[in-house]
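User: Design a sequence. Structure:
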């Protein structure tokens, strides 16, 4: 009986520790990102260069540069972005060099 209680307590601790929606790295770091429901990392960046094929070079808050494309809904509604725009980018945890622009600020 006690072993099943220990398992449930440990499982609850694990569930609570992995449900962080907003993560901040380091005490003095200004960079923060969020993890959405689908498990993608959302972070703010600035478009530095326009590339062919609706691709953009985006510099993130932490200084990293990635290649990003526009989300399908942004293409459908003809939302334009230019160099210097602040955008919210969605990235997979598996490939941190590519992303998807989901919002223009």
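Assistant: Done.
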């Amino acid at each position: 009986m006690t072993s099943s209680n220990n398992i449930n307590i440990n499982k609850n601790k694990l569930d609570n520790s992995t449900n962080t929606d907003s993560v901040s790295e380091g005490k003095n770091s200004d960079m923060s990102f969020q993890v959405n429901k689908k498990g993608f990392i959302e972070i703010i960046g600035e478009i530095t260069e326009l590339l062919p094929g609706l691709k953009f070079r985006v510099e993130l808050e932490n200084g990293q540069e990635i290649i990003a494309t526009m989300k399908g809904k942004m293409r459908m509604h003809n939302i334009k972005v230019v160099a210097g725009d602040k955008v919210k980018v969605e990235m997979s945890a598996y490939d941190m060099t590519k992303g998807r622009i989901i919002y223009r600020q």
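DSSP finds two helices and seven strands in the chain. The CA atoms of residues 25 and 86 lie 21 Å apart.
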